[in-house]
Amino acid sequence: KSLEVQYSTGTTQLVNLLDTEEYQTITPTRQPVEWVKLTIVSVYPGKEWEDAALSEVRVYARPD
Q1: pLDDT per residue over 40-55, tens digit each?
Q2: Which of 8, 12, 16, 54 could form a disulfide with 34 if both were Cys (CB 3.0 to 4.6 A apart)?
Q3: Rounded to whole angstroms, how far apart are CA atoms 3 and 14?
């Protein structure tokens, strides 16, 4: 449901996600960073499982 994105620069971003299995895009900070930390803040209720998981994360470098 929501995800906190923390960057090595100290910037944080709270992202609201849709309840879908489709890819979703997050527009990140425009500053160069060394690392990114993703923290699941809240989840949509599941039908089978009581835990939460991310099935795939893709990170792309911005072209110069």
Answers
A1: 999 888 888 777 877 8
A2: 8
A3: 6
CA-based torsion, 39, 25, 30, 15: positive or negative: negative
CA 28 to chain CA centroid, Å, is 10
**pTM (2 decimals)?**
0.79
Contacts of 58 (CB under 8 A, 6+ apart): none
Contact 4, 39 (CB under 8 A): yes
| CB burial readout 15-47, b (16+ within 10 A) else e | eeeeeeeeeeeeebeeeeeeeeeeeeeeeeeee
